[in-house]
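Dock 77N; give full complex structure.
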Amino acid sequence: TRSTRPQRLLRAVQQKAIKGDPQSVISAIDYFCRHSEWAMNVGDEKGSILDSVVCEVCPTTALELGTYCGYSTVRIARLLPPGTKLITLEFNPAFAAVARQVIEYAGLQNKVCLVEGASGDLIPKMCQMFGIKTFDFVFIDHWKDRYLPDIKLLEECQLLRKGSILLADNVICPGTPEYLEYVRNSPHYESKYFKSHLEYTKVEDGLEKSVFLG
Ligand SMILES: Nc1ncnc2c1ncn2CCOCCNC(=O)c1cc(-c2ccc(F)cc2)cc(O)c1O
Ligand SMILES: [Mg+2]
């Protein structure tokens, strides 16, 4: 049977990137998506904004909702100091299988814990599964209609603390209107929009950075 797009993306990494070199894995995926097949990675333009927020936060505990092929997982994990853990949740087993191989190719498997399952089911288990009290940083990049229910779930599970940073992808395209309305109007968040473009296109998109105020 024909290969899938994530499998073709993985093959491009294995053929073009250097094993153990996260930057070459990132560049190989960006090249594949620009010159061969578009794929829904956060991409290089929004990825640079993601990098700067991760470097500013220096998280000791980080969560990613929506792994896909592991592109943003590699971007985040390569910036984390030793001893920190990035937990990434992926619903689709085929995506997760590719992501594990991309993360391993980058040599970052010891900094990443990929869990398969739906965010709504897994978030309440973070404490018992990993002993995580609170997350310093959350990158939100999964089903656009799950953004709002899942941050409310993070609040209810007391997984956010004063100063926890949420960074949400695709707030313009495909768009997350309810999420934006909530974080921009809630007294519990201070929110800021980083204007950019939909990965590998000229279409407007952006990231919303929100600080939880407690
Ligand atoms: N653990 C979990 N729990 C729940 N749900 C989960 C999950 N893990 C995964 N999922 C669900 C699916 O995750 C992928 C979500 N991402 C996108 O859909 C996406 C789409 C576009 C896009 C597509 C077409 C266009 F024309 C224009 C833009 C761009 C992006 O940057 C996107 O991120
Ligand atoms: Mg996205």
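Observed: The radius of gyration is 16 Å.
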